[in-house]
Write a structure and sequence with these properties.
The complex is a heterohexamer, with 3 copies of chain A and 3 copies of chain D. Chain A is 30% helix and 29% strand. Chain A is α+β, with helices and mostly antiparallel strands. Chain A has a 5-stranded mixed beta sheet. Chain A has a 4-stranded antiparallel beta sheet with strand order 7-6-8-9. Chain A is globular. The chains are: A alpha+beta, D alpha+beta.
Amino acid sequence: MKNSNIQLIDESGKRVDGRYPNEMRRLRIEAGVLKNADGSAYIELGNNKIIVAVYGPHESTPKYLAEPDRAVIRCRYSMAPFSVSDRKSPSPSRREVELSMVIRQALEPAVFLNEYPRTMIDVFIEVLEADGGTRTASITAAAVALADAGIAMRDLVSAIAIGKVGGRLVVDLNGLEDQYGEGDMPIAMMPQLNYVTLFQADGVFTPQEIEDAFRMVADPIKKIYREQKRALKKKYVDVVREVEKSE
Amino acid sequence: MKNSNIQLIDESGKRVDGRYPNEMRRLRIEAGVLKNADGSAYIELGNNKIIVAVYGPHESTPKYLAEPDRAVIRCRYSMAPFSVSDRKSPSPSRREVELSMVIRQALEPAVFLNEYPRTMIDVFIEVLEADGGTRTASITAAAVALADAGIAMRDLVSAIAIGKVGGRLVVDLNGLEDQYGEGDMPIAMMPQLNYVTLFQADGVFTPQEIEDAFRMVADPIKKIYREQKRALKKKYVDVVREVEKSE
Amino acid sequence: MKNSNIQLIDESGKRVDGRYPNEMRRLRIEAGVLKNADGSAYIELGNNKIIVAVYGPHESTPKYLAEPDRAVIRCRYSMAPFSVSDRKSPSPSRREVELSMVIRQALEPAVFLNEYPRTMIDVFIEVLEADGGTRTASITAAAVALADAGIAMRDLVSAIAIGKVGGRLVVDLNGLEDQYGEGDMPIAMMPQLNYVTLFQADGVFTPQEIEDAFRMVADPIKKIYREQKRALKKKYVDVVREVEKSE
Amino acid sequence: MSESKSAGVLSLLKREVILAGLRKGEREDGRSLTEYREIEVKTGYVGKAEGSALVSLGDTKVIAGVKVDVGTPFPDTPNMGVQIVNAEFIPVASPVFEPGPPGEDAIELARVIDRGLRSAEAVDLESLVLVPGSKVWTIFVDIYPLDHYGNLIDASGLAAMSALLDTKLPVATVEEGEVRVSEEKKPLPIKTRVVYVTIAKIEDFLVVDPTFEEELAADARITYAVNEDLNICGIQKGGSGAFRVKELLDARDIALEVAPKLFEKLPGKPGA
Amino acid sequence: MSESKSAGVLSLLKREVILAGLRKGEREDGRSLTEYREIEVKTGYVGKAEGSALVSLGDTKVIAGVKVDVGTPFPDTPNMGVQIVNAEFIPVASPVFEPGPPGEDAIELARVIDRGLRSAEAVDLESLVLVPGSKVWTIFVDIYPLDHYGNLIDASGLAAMSALLDTKLPVATVEEGEVRVSEEKKPLPIKTRVVYVTIAKIEDFLVVDPTFEEELAADARITYAVNEDLNICGIQKGGSGAFRVKELLDARDIALEVAPKLFEKLPGKPGA
Amino acid sequence: MSESKSAGVLSLLKREVILAGLRKGEREDGRSLTEYREIEVKTGYVGKAEGSALVSLGDTKVIAGVKVDVGTPFPDTPNMGVQIVNAEFIPVASPVFEPGPPGEDAIELARVIDRGLRSAEAVDLESLVLVPGSKVWTIFVDIYPLDHYGNLIDASGLAAMSALLDTKLPVATVEEGEVRVSEEKKPLPIKTRVVYVTIAKIEDFLVVDPTFEEELAADARITYAVNEDLNICGIQKGGSGAFRVKELLDARDIALEVAPKLFEKLPGKPGA
């Protein structure tokens, strides 16, 4: 987080892209967008464009990764070279390695892994365009792709960041706010069960702000969840019924 | 292909190294040049110097590559660092990766793969000096090395490039012609069965020139085939008899 | 070895750090310093600080490395990035690859490998600070760590370098002497059985100097051996008894 | 190292079904042998890229993005910009793609596209020099298949060419050897457009724009790159089978016949 | 690629033993749930490093070393020095560490430590510029666990912070754009100190400074980085389980409560 | 990571046969214990290389090529050219060589050859400086075994040394810090020649120039690099066995005895 002279909130309390502090960017989710994948989803959150493919449950490759009593989730978060301002090398960066892990850990609590012993479930995420908040948007889309693949889930996972710009908390940082703001706190939740499955922060937050962030995130999480269900419903009424039954 | 002011054909129709358009460079092939390898060949085509070793058919390593009904060919085309003007890094370049594949695909149609189920046949190619046309010379030598290893073959594979310099088609580009000429079209054929097993082109060719190229390549292919047989005969009269029987 | 104008031996025959030619640096060895490892040792030789962990004998990983009639030793010599003046990249250098091998080969003759068929014994060496002579100090410590792990040994291995500075042989080069001296000749011995298990040299030595070096190294090797036994005794009286029984 | 590809991916039965259709002049999806699947080209898809295109070829989807940067020229071409084509077969696109650095198939694809563009001199590389011998524009074309349902070469060619046609290059000025890149942008100079036509050989049949299953059934494939003059600016035979010369010439004729339909799908040249 | 971790490492029985203890408010080593193991910090351990520290946290041992070098700044921060944190899980430290390049766990550790330091602006990076835009100090912090008995994050945080506090930077002068590094050294400028508090969740229990076995028994963990103002300068949830919001806030309270005890173990700030 | 080598490659019976011969003072190919196989050195083999040599040592064949380039010196030796020796154990040469980056054996070989040359100051690196501290000649020596029938070290030493003796360096002039390389060439300056003598220990026998099977039967090997003054300029013990001191000194005597015969096979020094 680099403080700077860039003014990220104006006198009227509006942000650089005209949003209010508690306002998310435009969100669009589509399920079942790929033919090869067993499940898939496409998400646009502001300028972010991300595609997620789920393959599985299938036989574990390599075999030694298989677990006798449950499925193993393999997760790959990757950014296309043209998704960012300066071309990104296609080989995995340390950031991508970490995000592949925390995204996996954000999804695992929601999947009934024990239903699929000895199998592997692949979650492949490709960021086509990035503008702040790709990890949370990826989680949101990946949960839809898992459901689209017909995988049994306790709940969906809905995710969004709380950030800190101009000394105050705001919802859903865009790229500019992420770069010049004071803090970023991505949160993923199982919205029906009310559990936190991803929680990170950069920047400096007062102890009180941690609590405020959780209060602030509740509403956007609900909105995201509704959009996830809408996307699933649109193509797979049956699958949604399964998900709702578990609510 | 970079056009340039370098004159590659003089007024009398001769090329930079004094050859006529339809003239190949000096060709020399030797079979059975290595002791460890099951089959081997050495080729000189002009300044090109290439050695090929064949190991196999042997047990597949790793085992999962084995096919129940046929042999797997493993092919590696590699250039020594000192084979070119600017030292080449020993790690495989993208060009070497592609050439390993197209050379393998140029050889496979000629080998009775089904005779050797569950085995692997290694074709290792090392370019010791390169001067234009190493892929075709490698194929020519590899076919001899396969025969030298006693592997059952439908036919040999003989290969040479047709190129375009000074606006006209010529046989067997050398390094200078390759660098400054207008086009390069390497062709590999099974000379007795009359099948094309490798066909590529860089540069711009008219539709008619494609036909002309095939007409022009027939004679050099025959010459190469004769030299391949001569090399095999020289050391292995028996092996050659097998090859000729299949003609 | 770069000759230079730096005077490494003064008029009184003393070296840059005040030592006499046949004088070793201060040596300190401690056994059993790590809790996870099955055996471990820490060595300080002058400014060198090295830690060695031994894991095993354990099941071979990967399995194909296992030998039906004996243990396989896996050895890794590694320098921490901060152990040297200019930060060293953490990925293994060619020097580290070679040293991992020659250190393994220096230890193998001392271990009763046939006592542990189908197993693997790991020797992991981390140089925390380097000041000349890390390979010999690593061997000395690794032998202690192997004994500390309770692995049956024919003998310990004790190692030190003979060097050449100012035209004469000296014992135990420090970093400065190594950099500016005329030659370095690391030697590892099984001190009781009187076998040489590592022998290398850089720099120019007369044929006579090879003999002189072996004469000169005898006394320091004895000292090192005593210190190795002392370290083992200090914590594991029982293990030492085993070692002495075999003497 | 290149190894023979696994056979047995397509059942013999399935191959027989495909062949039975071809003998009647029919393909599974109802196309004629020289017909392409439906083509859709969407440029300007990625805002962060200097140029981009999302291409659908039936169910096959490929995205290509162009990034540009000021770099140094290759030593042997000091007065030309640098064009780099890269393809990643990301596991999103197919169960047969494994994560990791590009394998031989992805490398071949990138090199075939690159050579076609380069042979045709599609990008006017000579106009991309900023300081002769030391500073030139580097044009990165990254090709990412998103859904692999066959014929990645032609789809990638359309995506790469469309992305280049979509590319806006920043206006750069040079003062005392220092390059200044402004906010202003102008189209990347393109001299000609290129399309790629791939034809699979299944027994004795030549089939344009093969599906994934047709590719598995095929003995070999041949790709012709074609420029706007309807000359051939690249050839690549693929697969472990062989062609008769006549088949290659027939394929050439087919390529020249269908190329104009592909050009129609591409954006126009800048300034044209 | 990130794969689910193997379960079955800890026997169910062992997990039951740990839980039975926690239900009585007891841990196997006699600590309370919010108590750290004994902490020892030894700075100046490695003579060749510009700064170093060997830290023991009970049986867990971590060494960190700092090397400095004159380098170029990142393009987007031309007026700041460069801080690089790296961790290697060398096989010396644990039978679960395999030799090879850093895996996801080592990368996560390094990035968590790095972000905490960076968010708090612990190292005064702006004071490390030699020639604005072109020459700055690069500060490498290398973290090497030597014995892994649980809670590597907090131990590594103590080691990294202590090594930075121990670091002496050569005095450098710039003449006509050329940097001259003298023999003279002065302390690396540190603006604030940072500590990391990790709390494991085992069923409904929150346990500070988990041992290796407690980590295996845990559903998830949460780390708070805390600066000297007792503000939060970094958060990382780990593990495949989930937290209730209340648990995360309780953990925050615990972190703020124990942080001052960790600060006591650190060396003082230079000049303070 | 270095692992113990697989035993069982050579049958016990075969080892017994070799030993039975040695007890009678005989080797399988009729040589005495201190006799080399036939040596052939062919320089100027590769036209594109600045220097090259193809060496046969019986059935063992090694090619070495030298390439030169203008580069930057190592920071700690600003007034010396750079010598880089690399060896690749390409799978052409032996069924025991696997494709891929150099393993420990290839790295050891290259480093042993490099150190011998370097210790003897064979290449006059100080004469290879173009602009002190910034531009020097880099001399790459690449060693490629083509057929591995034992004793790669000595064969590689002959190949590397011969290739260096064959090397022609372009004449370079420096004007205002810029290096201009002309077409004219002169021999690479060589101060002394070096040969490598490797002796295998098979039980109590010391055997010069071991064949591949003798290497498999050997307990250990010792290599002495020898310069033209018949001093030792490099030593490397190899293998998992041990030597008595007397054996090492006997091997030294053998090395000094046979070295002159190897020097006879090398080209002469330039200008000599």
